[in-house]
Amino acid sequence: MFVNRVSELELLKKRYASGKAEFFVLYGRRRVGKTELLARFCEDKRAIFFVSDLGSEISLRTALSAAVNTVLFGPNQMNAVYATWEDLFHALAQAAQNERLVVVLDEFPYLATAHPPLATILQRVWDQTLKNSQIMLILCGSYIGMMEATVLGYQSPLYGRRTAQYLLEPLQFQDARLFFPSFDAADQVRAYAVYGGTPAYLHTLQPHQSLSDNILDGILSRGSFLYDEVRFVLQQELREPRNYFAILQAVAAGKTRLNEIKQATGIEGATAYLDTLQQLHLVERTVPVTESQPHKSRRGIYRLKDHYLRFWFRYVHPNRSQLERGGAQIVLENQVIPEIDHFSSLTFEEVCQQTFWQAGLSGKLPFVPTKVGSWWNANEEVDLVILGEKDAVLVECKWTSKPAGMDILAELERKSTLVRPELENRPIRFALCSRSGYTPQLMKTAEARTDVMLFELADLVRSETQT
Predict the structure, then answer these.
(1) Residue 6: which pLDDT band, with cuts at 50, 70 and 90?
(2) pTM
(3) What pairs with residue 428 in β-bridges?
């Protein structure tokens, strides 16, 4: 199942049609769908598609030679091996002199690790011949840190050669929910909270089963694909994973400030570990949306960027001993199910944030947002603040089983007095997003006021937000 990625495909097609040599760098976390995207792009094109793996320099050069020869000369010539990497790249340049040729080197960091001079060799051949050909060279990799250092970084021999780069992110809610259309609206949000937007994880969902059965069979049960997935990915990405595991578990448990993380883990050098985790796009540091200098803010907090990472560290990793002994049903019934709505509430805010961005950019809000994010100060918090050049909307997101009432609006109005000094005289409006609807009194009040908007869960799931 290939979902969305429309803008990414359009970017690749635009570069393909440029009429000049292209050096495209695509990178992102494992399982996010890079290979699937590139395979879809290459379907109707003259293309050499090579996926690297662990191996020696000679074994990888032999395998790539076979892939090149098969496309250029036919399968009967695939066994000839290019003597050097220079010869191989020059052959590609020759083949692309008068006709467009797409060359995908997937998992490029494996090649660079097996033969460290490879980046320098490629840079030299690019400058000599490839840049004057009709080649579209695509380097792709999952090791985000290594891709940024080996290909994109200032110290890399390939620095400045790329003509485009793209960090492929997980799918947003409106696309992720296409993997589980049979779930009701509330379970679609819960499923997104558990699995996130990583296509490989979403593919494990069995739509004929309930969400709880999917979690039991596909996550908590030994031998399932997702049971050890996080451990596998982190061990691939991190050389000394123990301290990183401790930090990720602390953040997943709600330790969001630096001092809290240090106290929970006993790691004094936590800042350096957090910096690495941010570079890997596993952790993000967020600040109140009104901050004008985010990097200097003392109000920053840390959170796990990936939903499934958060679920795994909350329910799988701490219960590993019990799960290893067949206790999946017990963990599901005693921990996951009782806490699933509390766990999903943060994701509901994220779904609302994505929806307001989409609505604003498509003209369904009275203004175009410049920022959408949370606001907090000391013990006070506003779920979302939508900022425009001259407008502001304060949003409360209620993921509860009871209809939201007048008390919710009154509390949001009270908080507005705290946020107002940071809004630079923008007029304030209010919006409520509720899983369980609203009381008749609140709906009547909203109808009578022009500064209050109410959104049902169905509005958010359909992404048809109107004002």
Answers:
(1) confident
(2) 0.90
(3) 392
CB contact at 8 A, 289 and 371:
yes
pLDDT above 90 coverage of the chain, percent = 76
Q: What is the CATH number of domain 174-346?
A: 1.10.10
Nearest alpha carbon to residue 351 among 206, 188, 215: 188
Asked if residue 446 has pLDDT above 90, the reply is: yes
Q: Residue length, the chain?
A: 467
Please give the C-alpha separations between residue 162 and each of 2, 24, 41, 80, 116, in angstroms, as whole numbers: 27, 6, 19, 30, 19
Domains of the chain, residue spans: 6-167, 174-346, 347-462
210 φ, ψ to 5°? Answer: -70, 165
Residue 392 phi/psi, 5-degree rounding, is -150, 135
Q: Give me the chain's average pLDDT, please.
A: 92
pLDDT of residue 464: 46
Burial class of 206 by CB neighbour count within 10 A (0 to 12, 13 to 18, 19+): exposed
**Where is pLDDT greater, at 419 or 467?**
419
Please give the C-alpha separations between residue 94 and each of 80, 125, 128, 129, 130, in angstroms, as whole numbers.
17, 12, 12, 8, 8
Separate counts of helices (H) and strands (E) for the chain: 22, 12
pLDDT single digits (tens) 243-278: 999 999 999 989 999 999 999 999 988 999 998 888
Report the CATH architecture of 6-167.
3-Layer(aba) Sandwich (3.40)
Q: Which CATH number fits domain 347-462: 1.10.287.90, 3.40.50.300, 3.30.70.20, 3.40.1350.10?
A: 3.40.1350.10
Q: How far apart are CA 201 and CA 269, in angstroms?
A: 32
What are the start-end ranges of the H helices in 253-313?
258-265, 270-279, 307-311
Average pLDDT over residues 199-227: 95
